[in-house]
């Protein structure tokens, strides 16, 4: 099952492309980045590209694949071209 990135709200636990978990800290829906607390090697807060969010944990504890808007996917391709 999948969920749109626009349906990922503040407080949602997400899985990032690199395998780390994060908690979304804002309700911005039409942006290239989201503010998240990332639980990786260190716990830190910062901006995360929306296309780096690959799964979201629902209230029932199940993980759903996140789908992105065409604009976000195009921006990700542009960043890849620049080496990011």
Give a short summary of the structure:
The chain has one helix at about 70-80; strands at about 1-5, 15, 20-25, 35-40, 45-50, 55, 65. By secondary structure, it is mostly beta strands. A hairpin with a 3-residue loop joins β4 (about 35-40) and β5.
Structure overview:
The protein has 84 residues and is mainly beta. The chain has one domain. The protein is 14% helix and 42% strand. The chain contains one helix and seven strands; from the N terminus they run βββββββα. Strands 1-7-6-2-3-4-5 form a seven-stranded mixed beta sheet, with no helix packed on it. It is globular and about 35 Å long. The termini are far apart. The mean pLDDT is 95.
Helix/strand layout:
Blueprint: E1 2-4, E2 13-16, E3 21-24, E4 33-39, E5 43-49, E6 53-57, E7 63-67, H1 70-81
Parallel strand pairs: 1-7
Antiparallel strand pairs: 2-3, 2-6, 3-4, 4-5, 6-7
């Amino acid at each position: 099952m999948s969920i749109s990135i626009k349906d990922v709200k503040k407080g949602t636990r997400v899985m990032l492309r690199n395998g780390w978990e994060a908690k979304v800290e804002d309700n911005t829906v039409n942006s290239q980045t989201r503010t998240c607390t990332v639980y990786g090697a260190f716990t830190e807060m910062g901006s995360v590209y929306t296309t780096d969010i690959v799964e979201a944990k629902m209230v029932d504890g199940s993980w759903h694949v996140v789908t992105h808007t065409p604009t976000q996917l195009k921006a990700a391709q542009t960043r890849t071209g620049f080496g990011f």
